[in-house]
Amino acid sequence: MVDVSANADARPHVNALGSTAMSDLFQILRDGQPRTRSELASITGLARTTVAMRIDALTDLGLVGPVGEAASTGGRPSSLFAITASERFVVGVDIGASHIRVALADITGRIIEETNTVIAVAEGPRVVLDAVIATTRELIEHTGRRTGDLLAIGVGVPGPVEFSTGRPINPPIMPGWDRFDIAGWIRQEIDVPVLVDNDVNIMALGERERAWPDTDHLLFVKIATGIGAGVISGGFLQRGAQGTAGDIGHVYVSRGAEIACNCGNFGCLEALASGSAIARALTAAGIPATNSRDVVDLVKNGNVNAIQAVRQAGRDIGEVLTTCLSLMNPSVIVLGGSMAEAGEHLIAGVREVVYRRSMPLATESLHITLSQTGADAAVLGASMLAIHHSLSPANIEAMIAQSAGGALRAVK
């Protein structure tokens, strides 16, 4: 059977216990590896003729198709089948503090087209979400797609989200958004499933999909105005009981014991090592800086004070990540967000503390690296959130049931 949890971001894990439904064949192919009918029959234990009929049905749905031929063993080469791009598509939305990015992606995760719009999240949910809806419609029309082929919409927002409801919960930089029904508002105009998560979680999904597809244990750390982490463990995004897993920005760091945080506590990592915190410290030292962008520019221009401040921020972040490493044992730690543009000056501080303070076995195969997806991480991750939901076994079975009934049901 194919082991796929109810997690909307789950990736399929295949074993050889046998497969009984047409959607199971599809889940096997979701790992991206093309296979012949014979290979699928061997994995599932089904007769080759049954596999052939089900592959034909999935091909008719536009979900699977031939992608080449296997190496010949003497006879006619066998066709290889894989998930292919079709008319069906998803939309990924990245809502930032001062922008929205909207992308159309096919079911393989390839971005078809995207657009970036300057708009402040502080303008409120109705204004921002109406802009998302309008932009989505414009992209669909511009690419010649049909709204009826849209499977789902994934949305990332810059604040805590209760994933089960898709509602932001007390988001500090999103005035007016607390417990707002984002999914419901969008569905009033575009009636498809809408999945909402915080931006760091979807960035973790995007980074894994693009740069680390074979990694099941990854920690994505966003360092910008705030600090947070997206946790992938065992191949699944870990949100925790209330969706606050990865909120490392409010972990206590002794060096900041006297520094107040926006959350009301003292000594939070975010109050010490975020881009805005570094900017405040530099300004207090007589070097004007108002945000992460200013800090990065100072670093790139060789300002020694800025370089030293960023290096120390890396050490502070490394102190917290050392604990994370002991708890979760990730194989990859990715640093992203606007402060990641400070490059080696930031990552050197992180590595310095993590490798000095962690147990040797935990760091033996550990990669600490900068994000390879950059600004694309969130919109790609939002697209993948929608894809994983749309291509779940239950939803594939629903597509099959809704298709040209008799011929497809006969091969189930």
UniProtKB/TrEMBL annotation:
Q: Which InterPro entries match?
A: ArsR-like_HTH, ATPase_NBD, ROK, ROK_cs, WH-like_DNA-bd_sf, WH_DNA-bd_sf
Q: Which Pfam families match?
A: ROK
Q: Which domain of life is it from?
A: Bacteria
State the family named in the UniProt similarity comment for this chain. Answer: Belongs to the ROK (NagC/XylR) family.
- Protein name (Swiss-Prot/TrEMBL): ROK family protein
Q: Which organism is it from?
A: Agromyces luteolus
